[in-house]
Write a structure and sequence with these properties.
- It is a single chain.
- With about 250 residues, this protein is α/β, with parallel strands linked by helices.
- Helix content is about 35%, strand content about 25%.
- It is built from 9 helices and 12 strands.
- A 6-stranded mixed β-sheet has the order 8-9-10-3-11-12, sandwiched between helices.
- Strand 1 and strand 2 form a beta hairpin.
- Helix 3 packs across helix 4 and helix 4 packs across helix 5.
- It is globular.
- The structure holds adenosine-5'-diphosphate and magnesium ion.
- Adenosine-5'-diphosphate binds next to helix 1.
- It comes from Saccharopolyspora thermophila.
- It is a peripheral membrane protein.
- Pfam families: ABC_tran.
- It is found in: Cell membrane.
Length: about 250
């Protein structure tokens, strides 16, 4: 579902991603761990073309994201085509990014109507179904500020799901939450994984990674230093830097 090869990205003279390769099979969950500043958010932003890449390829479900190949060279796709591609790649942010002036239901139907052209009645039905899924049925008319952080993040996940994404990206989805609210969000993510949703999850929740991930990737200094099944990477890391990082977060 996701294939990244030779991905390079710099900001000015600072290299942030230095040749990242990553493959995620359909229905699999990959957790990305690594120190602050190692390029995790930039990696996610390159996947859905929120950042232009300097070199390398990102393919989602067999299609290059953001570019088309013409005579062996990559040409940027027009914005409306990229918007369409992005519609199939959901993103859940650390700070929820809900629209504060819209109700929960309005947050959930906006993109399906606006981007996919789903009829309003159908969009509302979809929204209700996803609210049920994240355990927030009945909160359609609430405003984000009336909800706890955990509830807001579950709404953000429901909103991503209304687009029926092929791939769902999470950028530290529980980092902004009070500790007692982390579990309810992880539980929703665990259910999604079990339902076969393909996901890339940047997280410091090592317990979640151990339990849910098919593969864990350790990113350090813009490079994948080590990757493997959780029982190998987390319990028996080969690279000294992976060991050092795990000692610090565990
Ligand atoms: P992480 O998510 O692992 O903490 P980031 O991908 O956010 O790391 O950032 C990696 C590096 O890239 C950091 O040094 C950060 O300061 C830099 N960076 C990220 N975004 C930008 C930007 N838009 N402009 C300049 N530098 C950036
Ligand atoms: Mg980050």
């Amino acid at each position: 579902m996701l294939k990244i090869s030779g991905l390079h990205k710099s900001f000015g003279a600072t290299p942030v991603l230095r040749g990242v390769d990553l493959t995620v099979a359909r229905g699999q969950v990959t957790c990305v761990i690594g120190p602050s500043g190692s390029g995790k958010s930039t990696l996610l932003r390159c996947i859905n073309h929120l950042e232009k890449v300097d070199a390398g390829r990102v393919e989602v479900d067999g299609a290059l994201v953001g570019y088309r190949e013409v005579g062996g060279r990559l040409r940027e796709l027009p914005d409306r085509v990229v918007a369409r591609q992005r519609a199939g790649i959901g993103m859940v942010f650390q700070n929820f990014n809900l629209f504060g002036h819209l109700t929960v239901l309005e947050n959930l139907i906006e993109a399906p109507i606006g981007v996919l052209g789903v009829p309003r009645a159908q969009a509302r039905e979809r929204a209700r179904e996803q609210l049920r899924r994240v355990g927030l049925k009945g909160r359609e008319d609430a405003y984000p500020r009336q909800l706890s952080g955990g509830q807001q993040q579950r709404i953000a996940i429901a909103r991503a799901l209304t687009m029926e994404p092929k791939l769902l990206l999470f950028d530290e989805p529980t980092s902004a939450l009070d500790p007692e609210l982390v579990g309810e969000v992880l539980a929703v993510m665990r259910d999604l994984a079990q339902a076969g949703q393909t996901m890339v999850v940047v997280t410091h929740e090592i317990g979640f990674a151990r339990e849910v991930a098919d593969e864990v990737v350790f990113l350090d200094g813009g490079e994948v230093l080590e990757s493997g099944p959780p029982e190998e990477l987390l319990d028996n890391p080969r690279h000294p830097r992976t060991r050092e990082f795990l000692h610090r977060v565990l």
